[in-house]
Design a protein that fits this description.
122 residues, mainly alpha, 5 helices
């Protein structure tokens, strides 16, 4: 039962952070910069936590659950990314559609890699 509380509180915090950061990054751009930004930050942070499990930065299971499933689960935005991509395709914004797919996939993979590298330095 305690695990559910950790995830729920983390989810609340992650959703609020997502809203604030995504709104700030988006501005007036037609390109979904807010979603791209939170996806990259989420990928990096998830990787950092995951690959730091045996380092000095290692977290107790309850903290790891709170951060990964709760905070980052609500913070990252795969469903929003998919919807925004589909809307770009519907609006025949083909170059923005391809750019959005490429940047989200490549930069989030880069975020995972950088998180792993960073965790090795801790």
């Amino acid at each position: 039962m305690l695990s559910i509380i950790y995830v729920g509180i983390g989810g609340f915090i992650g959703a609020v952070f997502r809203f604030l950061l995504s709104s700030t990054l988006q501005g007036s751009s037609r390109f979904p910069l807010g979603t791209l930004g939170v996806n990259i930050i989420g990928a990096f942070t998830l990787s950092l936590i995951t690959y730091s499990s045996e380092k000095a930065f290692a977290l107790p299971d309850s903290s790891r659950l709170f951060l990964t499933v709760g905070v980052l689960g609500a913070f990252t935005t795969m469903s929003t990314f998919s919807l925004e991509s589909f809307k770009l395709l519907e609006e025949q914004e083909n170059m923005l559609f391809i750019t959005n797919l490429a940047l989200n996939n490549l930069l989030c993979l880069a975020g995972i890699y950088l998180g792993k590298i960073t965790s090795a330095l801790l």
